[in-house]
């Protein structure tokens, strides 16, 4: 069953998860977020800022909507001074059999 939470509730959960877990020494921390830029992204960045992350790796697909989202994500990262250290293009060779 789907969990439906509004922005403030999601932000509380994100904050609690990132601050209450004892992560120990990490080489990498991968955080999968929804496409685009939203309150979730701001909450994540505010919580990880203290550990001075090396940067963000963004994931996109070749579709126009996804490329538009990743452009906004790059802009978001620039505004918050989080370096983009890579962009992964997923499903590059995939051609949808239903929509070509």
Automatic annotation (TrEMBL):
PROSITE patterns for this protein: MRP (PS01215)
Record has Aminoacyl-tRNA synthetase as a keyword: no
Pfam name, any one: ParA
Listed GO MF terms: 4 iron, 4 sulfur cluster binding; ATP binding; ATP-dependent FeS chaperone activity; metal ion binding
InterPro entries linked to this entry: Mrp-like_CS, Mrp/NBP35_ATP-bd, P-loop_NTPase, YlxH/NBP35
Record keyword Iron-sulfur present: yes
Keyword terms, alphabetized: 4Fe-4S, ATP-binding, Iron, Iron-sulfur, Metal-binding, Nucleotide-binding
GO CC, one annotated term: cytosol
Name of the protein: Uncharacterized protein
């Amino acid at each position: 069953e789907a969990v439906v939470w509004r922005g403030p509730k999601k932000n509380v959960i994100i904050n609690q998860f990132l601050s209450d877990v004892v992560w120990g020494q990490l080489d990498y921390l991968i955080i999968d977020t929804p496409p685009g830029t939203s309150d979730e992204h701001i909450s994540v960045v505010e919580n990880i800022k203290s550990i001075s992350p090396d940067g963000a790796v963004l994931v996109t697909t070749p579709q126009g909507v996804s490329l538009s989202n990743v452009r906004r994500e790059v802009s978001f990262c620039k505004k918050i001074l989080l370096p983009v250290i890579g962009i992964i293009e997923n499903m590059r060779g995939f051609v949808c059999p239903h929509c070509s």
